Amino acid sequence: MTASTHSSGIGLVPARVGAAEADRAGSLLARDGAVVLTGLEATADAPVVAAALLLGSRLREIFPPRLRRSRDGGPVPLHADGFDVVVDIGGVPTRRRDPDEDHVLIQGVEPALSGGQSFVADAYRFVERCAAADPRLHAFLTTVDVDLYGAWAGLRGLPATPRVGRHVEFTRTGRRIVRRTEGAAPLHRDPDADHVRAMLARLAESAQALERTLPRFEIAAGDVLALDNYRCWHGRDAHRGERTVRILTLRTCDAR
């Protein structure tokens, strides 16, 4: 099965591929930005196994898996993963999250009673559409520095030094990054702070409008949704009942 795209060309329903065809699944992940690996048990080590199967020797750094449980949960809007968290463990500074996590794996553990469907957007195509449909937003995304986590200043474990970047950047190897975080804020004493806040609101509105048009799909127990976190934004609908997933973020040799 190959991935299907929405008529807008931005929405994506990832191909579903069995773990026995990991090479094919890895190729589809590289081509489409997303794939669902099937046939694994919903165990704690399965996301790590899936990462190894999909990415192999390109793996460089794996961050601690996160078990997420929610009951009657609200929607999770379109976003890209990435967070700047360093903790002290036995006197040794230890990074638990990284702003430049370039892949994220989401494992279904317990599906919701109803709702909770996932959706994925190709952020590269979103930015390309903005160039013609909303040049002002496109210019903001590609040329304006923001404090990527400034809205979360003071959160325990978040470094005091602002993490400055643009929503659209490139790695030193030429790989494009398209960020989407609700933590972005104007730089301290930025004379254009009002403009930055207006553009952040405009981006949020555009993402919300896009979200409503995206195709939905299920992540069953044991399924692992793998995403190119530099290219794809993802989210899920509200749900009823218990819903549990495991999330694994990582960096490969291609990360910034």
Q: Would you report the number of β strands? A: 20
**Mean pLDDT over the residues:** 95
The CATH C-level name is Alpha Beta
CATH topology: Double-stranded beta-helix
| Spans where pLDDT lies below 50 across 5 or more residues | none
Derived structural class: alpha+beta
* Major sheet summary line: 7 strands, mixed
Fourth-tier CATH superfamily name? Clavaminate synthase-like
Percent strand: 25-35%
Query: What is the rounded Rg?
Result: 18 Å
Instruction: Give the H and E element order.
Output: EEEHEHEEEEEEEEHHEEEEHEEEE
Report the principal-axis shape: globular
Overall CATH architecture: 4-Layer Sandwich
Number of helices: 5
Question: What's the structural domain tally?
Answer: 1
What is the helix content? 10-25%
> What is the CA–CA distance across the termini?
31 Å
Domain TauD/TfdA-like: 19-245
InterPro entries: TauD-like_sf, TauD/TfdA-like
Protein name: TauD/TfdA family dioxygenase
Pfam family, one: TauD
Provide structural commentary.
The protein has five helices and 20 strands. The mean pLDDT is about 95. About 25% of the residues lie in helices and about 35% in strands. It is an alpha+beta fold and about 260 residues long. A hairpin with a 5-residue loop joins β15 and β16. It is globular, with a radius of gyration of 18 Å. The relative contact order is 0.28. It has one domain: Double-stranded beta-helix (4-Layer Sandwich), CATH 3.60.130.
